[in-house]
Hints:
Layout lengths: L3 H12 L7 H15 L42 E3 L34 E4 L2 E13 L2 E6 L2 E3 L7 E8 L7 E8 L7 E2 L5 E11 L5 E2 L4 E2 L4 E3 L2 E7 L2 E5 L5 H4 L2 E3 L8 E8 L3 E6 L2 E7 L8 E8 L4 E4 L2 E4 L11 E13 H5 L6 E2 H15 L5 H11 L6 E2 L1 H14 L2
Antiparallel strand pairs: 1-22, 2-3, 3-4, 3-22, 5-19, 6-16, 6-22, 7-9, 7-19, 8-9, 9-13, 10-11, 12-15, 13-14, 16-17, 17-18, 20-21, 23-24
Amino acid sequence: MMDTALKHEKFANSNRASDAPSTCRLISTTILTMFLGLLSLSDIPAMPLSPNDGSSSNDRSSGSAPIPQPLGDGLQNGEWVFQESHSDEFNASKIDRSRWNIDSKDFGPWSWEPENVTQQDGVLTLQMVRKDHQRGNQKLFYTSGMARIDEPITYGYFEARIKGCDRYPGACPSFWLYSSGPENRYQARDGETVAYSEIDVVELQQSEFDFATKKHFPVNRIDCNLHTTVIRDGKRVWLRPHSHPEICRNLFNSEWDPRDDYHVYAVENSRDEIVWYIDGQEVARKPNLYWHLPMHLTLSLGLRYPFVAYEGGERVAVPEQTTDEGFPTSMSVDYVRVWQRAEDAKKKSATDWTKAEYIASEKAKWEKNGWRWDAARVESNFEEIDSNNDGLASGKERQAWFAKKARETK
């Protein structure tokens, strides 16, 4: 567990070129200080803060601490910008609720309760507790914690320092990104229409079933997988690690137990490929076929085997396995840090279309349906869709426009 002072010391060490200034440098500094002392303070102009100077009331006071640098060699190519909006050192006295959503909607066998997410002594803690409860007709037996940044992001370098939970098997500490919302659609280069993107930066202690050995994987098996759904013949089709391992599955067998100490887990999502890192070393790489939708950066402690099982391709609770042994249990997060390439930090989302992109998409659709092309009408539609006049037809704006037209035709 690192306190604020130690973190600041770490940043300084990562950026410091030399620890021992020369005598000449000390003398020069002294002379410069004396000279400045002769000047009136009013003659010295204030220096404006850069938008990415790392200052934050939550993480780095008064911009005094250097901007964090990633562990290892993940950001060697290009110009990168630290994203304060998606990063947190967890140094504040309480969770930044303007940044983190800790009361996400429940789904499947997972019940996310805000009281299971706490912040203290520079660490975010997500716990899982034994608690009987009911959601609809479904009886459930555990609640857990999730922390999600609702502001979506697509491309970048995502890094977190995490310590696993004591309970094994049964709970899975996870750092991941996932898309949401029916307005999210992406036309992949191979022609597939993508309706969901999920990148698992890391899933610890899953204890998934090994079909080769007919046993569950040991605690040091670390998963760095991909999940997606595509629309085929009007139906959603899942592409998962088990069904499509060549594009979705990555595994890493560590020499250490993730429950014992903190380790740094990271992924870079770019337009061409996805690369995973553990403790600064590359461990997996996949071509980026379908992971271009806006996604939510998420930390969670999810229920796993033996308390859930697969049924019809989905996880469901297993009541007969319920136990108090090993609960409550918790995962710890020292920090989350995100960088984006300079060009990505300025660009639109993959689901936001420029006027030219919108017209090209509509023209292809009109030709496919055998309609007589009407450029003026399509351009007029774009102007209606672009409700905030930012020159883009976002996914939400398109969805709202189509809903409006549907109401008008009734």
